[in-house]
């Protein structure tokens, strides 16, 4: 599903955030991306979501070389990726329902379908009944779950999460991780960037570690 | 991904008719959804704007004033043209006959002229009548009485049959009449009409220049307003781009916002021009009455009104299109 081949990313200004990164994550796998702050985790996720382009090497998603995707095609490509951020990136002037419905409306889904899928997504993250609430009235953990519901409402085959538990206490963090595990169970590929080593170590998933832009270890407890 | 996966799983030997039918239904359904979304955004943007009526009103007023100026001038010109049509008819040729022309000779000339195809009306003033009229109009009544001899010649006043808006034919007629041996002096009082036409021509060009400049101003006003709106919604744009919103999707609400600004601007311009005309109509009628003329200002006709509203809407759309095109690319997630 995700393949990096000799991928490097140098930001304008000369800083090399990723150097010669190689790895492959098969479809349906759940994996963690760890490393200190500044190690290049966010940069790696941005390359996958075409928020940045690599300076060298290639990124393949579902066997598609991202270098071949023109600027015009990027929106359609991104509809197949659910992206979750630490700072939830919710629209605070819209209800929970409208926030979660946004990807479906962008994709031009009919109204009935939108209703059905939004409810299903909110149900999955345990927020059914909060549709009419505004994000500002929700707790941090609930807001994060709204973000997750929005990321998965379109049923994307790939889920990316950048520090999804950054501001949450351990209990809430575990809850969030459990939601990701649920998606992984149904065949969604999940890549979670986090520097929360305590949390990651407690879970039996593959772990890619970045150190100053280099992939230092790639450990899979299943093997 | 999902797309390609579906494609891979699609059975290739599926019967054609069923496929095309389901596709047609899908297309109609998608079109319906699409139109519905457009309508939603259309009214959503109106709702957003109406939440801040003052700022909507101020922007629309600026656009309205900018549109009202050339429109008002256009209407004034139209009225002037109508008026000058009346003045046209008033233009006349005065033939001062040779002194000593006998009354009978003069009358023969008059009946000749009355047959002339390019002459509408002829009015004859014998020297006596001319003197009487001069006395009446000049107020030199008593002074003239002391003259031993009438110094005035007989005058034939000729009203040309006018080709609309063409002083040239009248001048040709003048030249022809001047050739007549009985005529001492022929004078056409047409110079001021020509000048009026020249001035109106300049004003008409002026309307175009003014309209172009003010259209540019409207574009800038709308562009700037939309630019601010884009900046205010920067976060939203980033999020929408992040979850796969196309440029067209992001552009849509701003375009509709521009549409509404333009429409309201057009309506305000219409109101401004109509109210101004209404205010002016009283004094104009009074003035016309002084000239024994009944003249009512012609207001905005349907064509001008529709043109005004469409101009406003187009300028709103184009202004926001330019602003969105310029600023949307700058906003990228990451
Ligand atoms: N847009 C950017 N321009 C320049 N340097 C950047 C940019 N984004 C990130 N960096 C740098 O790249 C390095 C890796 O950043 P990042 O990928 O955010 O790391 P992480 O998410 O692991 O903390 C950091 O040193 C950061 O300063
Ligand atoms: Mg980061």
UniProtKB/TrEMBL annotation, chain A:
Its main location: membrane. PROSITE patterns: ABC_TRANSPORTER_1 (PS00211), ABC_TRANSPORTER_2 (PS50893). InterPro entries: AAA+_ATPase, ABC_transporter-like_ATP-bd, ABC_transporter-like_CS, ABC_transpr_LolD-like, Cell_div_FtsE, P-loop_NTPase. It is found in: Cell inner membrane; Cell membrane. SMART domains: AAA. The keyword Membrane applies. It is a peripheral membrane protein. Signal peptide: none annotated. Pfam families: ABC_tran. Coiled coil: none annotated. The keyword Transmembrane does not apply. Belongs to the ABC transporter superfamily. Homodimer. Forms a membrane-associated complex with FtsX. This is Cell division ATP-binding protein FtsE.
From TrEMBL, chain B:
The keyword Transmembrane helix applies. GO terms for cellular component: cell division site; plasma membrane. It is found in: Cell inner membrane. Residues 209-326 form the ABC3 transporter permease C-terminal domain. Residues 1-17 have a biased composition (Basic residues). Its main location: membrane. The keyword Disulfide bond does not apply. It comes from the Bacteria. Gene3D superfamilies: 3.30.70.3040. Coiled coil: none annotated. One of its GO terms (biological process) is cell division. The chain crosses the membrane at residues 56-77, 206-226, 259-280, 300-324. It is a multi-pass membrane protein. Keywords: Cell cycle, Cell division, Cell inner membrane, Cell membrane, Membrane, Transmembrane, Transmembrane helix. Forms a membrane-associated complex with FtsE. Belongs to the ABC-4 integral membrane protein family. FtsX subfamily. Part of the ABC transporter FtsEX involved in cellular division. This is Cell division protein FtsX. It comes from Thiohalophilus thiocyanatoxydans. The lineage of its organism: Bacteria, Pseudomonadati, Pseudomonadota, Gammaproteobacteria, Thiohalomonadales.
């Amino acid at each position: 599903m995700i393949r990096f081949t000799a991928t490097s990313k140098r930001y304008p200004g000369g800083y090399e955030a990723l150097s010669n990164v190689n790895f492959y994550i098969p479809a349906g796998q759940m994996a963690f991306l760890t490393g200190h702050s500044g190690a290049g985790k966010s940069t790696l996720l941005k390359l996958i979501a075409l928020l940045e382009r690599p300076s060298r090497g290639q990124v393949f998603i579902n066997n598609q070389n991202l270098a071949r995707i023109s600027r015009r095609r990027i929106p359609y490509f991104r509809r197949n990726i659910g992206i979750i951020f630490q700072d939830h990136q919710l629209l605070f002037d819209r209800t929970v329902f409208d926030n979660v419905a946004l990807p479906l409306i962008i994709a031009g889904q009919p109204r009935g379908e939108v209703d059905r899928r939004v409810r299903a997504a909110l149900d999955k993250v345990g927020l059914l009944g909060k549709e009419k609430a505004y994000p500002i009235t929700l707790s941090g953990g609930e807001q994060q779950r709204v973000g997750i519901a929005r990321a998965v409402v379109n049923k994307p085959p790939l889920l990316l999460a950048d520090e999804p538990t950054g501001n949450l206490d351990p209990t809430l963090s575990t809850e969030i991780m459990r939601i990701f595990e649920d998606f992984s169970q149904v065949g969604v590929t999940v890549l979670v960037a986090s520097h929360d080593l305590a949390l990651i170590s407690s879970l039996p998933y593959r772990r890619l570690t970045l150190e100053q832009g280099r992939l230092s270890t790639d450990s899979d407890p299943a093997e | 991904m999902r797309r390609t996966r579906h494609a891979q799983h699609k059975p290739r030997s599926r019967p054609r008719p069923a496929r095309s039918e389901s596709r047609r239904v899908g297309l109609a359904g998608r079109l319906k959804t699409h139109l519905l979304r457009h309508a939603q955004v259309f009214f959503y943007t109106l709702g957003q704007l109406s939440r801040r009526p003052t700022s909507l009103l101020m922007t629309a007023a600026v656009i309205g004033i900018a549109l009202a100026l050339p429109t008002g001038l256009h209407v004034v010109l139209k009225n002037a043209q109508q008026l000058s049509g009346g003045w046209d008819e008033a233009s006349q040729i005065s033939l001062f006959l040779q002194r000593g022309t006998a009354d009978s000779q003069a009358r023969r000339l008059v009946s000749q002229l009355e047959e002339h195809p390019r002459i509408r009306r002829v009015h004859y003033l014998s020297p006596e009548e001319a003197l009487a009229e001069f006395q009446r109009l000049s107020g030199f009544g008593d002074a003239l009485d002391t003259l031993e001899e009438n110094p005035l010649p007989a005058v034939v006043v000729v009203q040309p049959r006018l080709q609309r808006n063409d002083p040239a034919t009248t001048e040709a007629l003048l030249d022809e009449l001047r050739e007549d041996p009985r005529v001492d002096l022929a004078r056409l009082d047409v110079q001021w009409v020509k000048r009026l036409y020249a001035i109106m021509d300049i004003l008409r060009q002026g309307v175009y220049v003014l309209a172009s400049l003010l259209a540019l101003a409207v574009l800038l006003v709308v562009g700037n307003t939309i630019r601010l709106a884009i900046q205010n919604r920067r976060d939203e744009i980033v999020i929408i781009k992040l979850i796969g919103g196309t440029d067209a999707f992001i552009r849509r609400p701003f375009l509709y916002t521009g549409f509404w600004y333009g429409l309201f601007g057009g309506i305000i311009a219409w109101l401004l021009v109509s109210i101004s005309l209404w205010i002016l109509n009283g004094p104009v009628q009074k003035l016309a009455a002084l000239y024994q003329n009944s003249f009512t200002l012609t207001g905005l006709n349907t064509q001008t009104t529709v043109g005004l509203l469409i101009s406003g809407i187009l300028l709103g759309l184009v202004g926001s299109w330019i602003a969105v095109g310029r600023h949307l690319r700058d906003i990228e997630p990451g």
